[in-house]
Amino acid sequence: MSNPRKTFHLNAFLMGVGHHEAAWRHPRTEEHRVLDVEHFRELGRIAERGTLDSVFFADGLAVGPRIKRNALAVFEPVTLLAAIATATTHVGLIATASTTYNEPFNLARKFASLDHISGGRAGWNIVTSGSEDEAFNFGYDAIPDHARRYERAQEFVDLAVRLWDSWESAAIVLDPETGIFADPDRVHTLDYSGERFRVRGPLNSPRSPQGRPLLVQAGSSESGKEFAARSAEAVFTAQRTIEEGQRFYRDLKSRLPRYGRSADDLKVLPGLVPFIADTEAQALALEQEFTDLISPDYALRQLSTLLGVDLTEHALDAPLPPLPAESEIEGGKSRFTLVKELAEKEELTVRQLIGKLGGGRGHRTLAGTPEQIADDLQAWFEAGAADGFNIMPPYLPGGLEDFVDRVVPILRERGLFRTEYTATTLRGHYGLEPVESQFAANEIAATA
Amino acid sequence: MSNPRKTFHLNAFLMGVGHHEAAWRHPRTEEHRVLDVEHFRELGRIAERGTLDSVFFADGLAVGPRIKRNALAVFEPVTLLAAIATATTHVGLIATASTTYNEPFNLARKFASLDHISGGRAGWNIVTSGSEDEAFNFGYDAIPDHARRYERAQEFVDLAVRLWDSWESAAIVLDPETGIFADPDRVHTLDYSGERFRVRGPLNSPRSPQGRPLLVQAGSSESGKEFAARSAEAVFTAQRTIEEGQRFYRDLKSRLPRYGRSADDLKVLPGLVPFIADTEAQALALEQEFTDLISPDYALRQLSTLLGVDLTEHALDAPLPPLPAESEIEGGKSRFTLVKELAEKEELTVRQLIGKLGGGRGHRTLAGTPEQIADDLQAWFEAGAADGFNIMPPYLPGGLEDFVDRVVPILRERGLFRTEYTATTLRGHYGLEPVESQFAANEIAATA
Ligand SMILES: Cc1cc2nc3c(=O)[nH]c(=O)nc-3n(C[C@H](O)[C@H](O)[C@H](O)COP(=O)(O)O)c2cc1C
Ligand SMILES: Cc1cc2nc3c(=O)[nH]c(=O)nc-3n(C[C@H](O)[C@H](O)[C@H](O)COP(=O)(O)O)c2cc1C
What we know:
globular
């Protein structure tokens, strides 16, 4: 990674036995493994065999009444990643956690803990939780307002960073001779008092190997992009065409200078659901097998939530009913717009739309040979539409194995991806150093 | 365990490199291992070699300004236990978590996750967080009132139980043929609306192997005992003499019938810090080595917090200053009283008191041969002062190894402790079955 422009980043976005809605019904998966921690540990090892930067787990704090999702996150991601950490040595471990329904102190501590346990491999996908079902589980009558959620997210993350910084790396002394465990002058009380939070600090965890987890963001609305530009180091996003990808990429990067950051400080990783086979025809046939297994019942409930209209009684072979404007959506704005535009542009019936969304809920699906997949990634990368990719295997573990064992070698041959790990931390895979405490810096300045 | 009256329970209460305040300064420990997850995984394996019921981690949500503790919990317990789960197969995994500074939905989910990851070995030590330092990290100006904390704890636990029960064990269908992932009639919306919480449910996790974690409680105040009598399945407690132990034991057990429970439904586990050596003289000398390593500085700060008076400027060789009454203490009431009575009864100077508390912060310390330790445990058990013990090794891993390899074999020979595991879940070690959902029972009643 001597030239960060030349190689790209690969994250494995893992979900149950695969991203495809119907993955668990397909013979390539063993459906009961959604409940088996060993399945996930194995996925971690496969990702590591492919020298991927990281594995990543999404999360939602509700399943809703009558089980809207048929692939649900059984495990709380940080706990699950702690179990995966002990099965792996290099691969980064990114967990989703909500700033809307957590306390900063608890969450900062949890990620510090994961970073310690994994020897510096933790990442945090920061989300604001855009579903009504989640709001109902935390005492709300409706989704908290979109703008307010992002305001809270910003204060939350700024505070979490201070909490991680409350311990300088030199704070731990552990000198049995003098009996000094920690140097109190290097452990900082914050006395933080902001609009939403008051926290004295310090954090109850010594500084972790990376200083703080890699900060990742995954909302693409206006507020989401602004938040990412200020605070994130990587962005997951759903982009359907190379042109849209380029636009999003330029848009995000152009926001960075306002925060004193440069284009390299924030990596953009669009998602891709790859169906891989020996020939393109076989890959397309494989994708079709999955599409054919979708239960419209579940899919309609998910789509209804996403679009803010009740489609459960809507005719499958009719076009969508009129949809609200993005401004009326309090949940995920960018995904709403992506799906709305897709349906309108391609004049899809509800059934066709469900088929298109089955693979990755709006993320781009590509069926092809290993070479075709590699060509596509290279094209996006070279066109300035991506700094790397969020690989979303439609079925697991097979879909991840195919990517790691068939696509990654091609990317390596082309010099687009690392052939071995050159670091043991997630920040290291991104070419970043561990972060020192902001308070340590001040002190040096003060004594200089 | 055919006769639960005849054998007892053993929990390993683990802390850093040992319970003794000065453990990390003693040559029997490697101080840097407080930061090493492999140290803790090894402890799990040692406990399992001894067929112990469980390992347990305490937790506090603050270190306070200027680092009051010299042995701090680096890792968040649930995350740490997920890492230990993958290094072990049988031993129970008990994590402390606060009902005062968590959300019921998040915590219920975390324990469900640990129970899934460990195949049914999770336990929850329910605490209400009695320190001011913790309150300051969560937006409070003072410790929330003791009685209110326990009221919240009660509502919290009742709600957590409902959340775990929101999925019946038969809810997961996973039938690829019909495409039915979960049976929505067996996943229950709660629409819970109580004094402090409103949660719609269901939980975002299928029922875990044990149905719910083993519920453990560790406060011994009047409110704490009442709470335990109603909701806990095991109680950790600090009792200094066999007579006090008997009184506490009878007191707790006598409260159970009021809640429709019998004496066997709640196990009482007093703590013991064992110093083990070939001869009693050697064991006492070993204990003295640890006492001599205590830094009064740290110890005074801890004692000040515990007693609610500032002792940091107090003469070490003077008796304690006048102390407040228990009713004025908003933190841990029972520990306050235990320490106050100890100091008064034995007319201790501050220095002597610090020495006595060094091993286990008020828990009983016993220095002796393996036989003496075994005799003592047997005496407490047979006198009706304990259903088992919370073993608190003063240094780690050595102190746990000595207990497992030298004391456990004697207990086994005497028929007081299991020779092998007869179950793979923590509830199983307690002779309990997995718990079925309360909603499943109702349904059967309704259709009967
Ligand atoms: C790859 C990817 C993963 C995401 N994962 C989650 C997740 O796990 N949990 C969540 O609440 N939101 C997740 N989101 C974000 C939501 O989809 C949604 O964008 C967000 O709640 C609000 O963002 P917006 O309104 O800024 O678009 C993810 C988004 C992307 C692109
Ligand atoms: C063995 C044992 C372990 C305990 N562990 C914790 C702990 O990890 N965290 C905590 O906040 N309180 C813990 N406590 C409880 C406190 O010491 C204190 O008793 C509690 O906060 C309030 O209880 P009380 O006022 O009912 O006595 C523990 C108690 C015992 C006996």
